[in-house]
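call fold target=VapB-type antitoxin
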Amino acid sequence: MSEIIRVSKDVKEKLVRIAAELQLSRGKRVSLNEAVEYLITFYEENKKSQKNAQLLFSLLGSAKGIREEFERSRREDEGSS
């Protein structure tokens, strides 16, 4: 079952360009619906990878803090010797 959605002329032109690029890369006709599906999939995958990147940066930040604390502790130990 299909639905009607309204988009601005500018958005439609951009969607048609995306569909045309997909057609070139896939070598077959691509509907506007397929272009929208592609954009949704791209968004969902990017959202997941963005969460993974945030987790990685969080872990790296923790590791950096641990390393800095280790270095500070080592300097203190060397200074008290």
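return ok
The chain is about 85% helix and 0% strand. The CA atoms of residues 19 and 32 lie 6 Å apart.
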